[in-house]
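Read as amino acids, tokens; as here:

___
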Amino acid sequence: MQIDRITLNPAVMGGKPCIRGLRVTAGTILGLLASGHSRERILQAYPYLEAEDLDAVKAYAAWRLEEREEALVVQ
């Protein structure tokens, strides 16, 4: 899995998941893919991104959807 291309840094984009520390959030790219933009068009619009970055965004989103959040139990 290529999730290592997704970075979290509180000083970049308010700590949102970004691609390789760049100021492009995973959510922005996932939204473009979800709205039907082609990979080629996204890579044209963001020439500093790589095809592997788009794969990493999808892998990260899938991983986050499967992650479980457990309620904190106070005893």
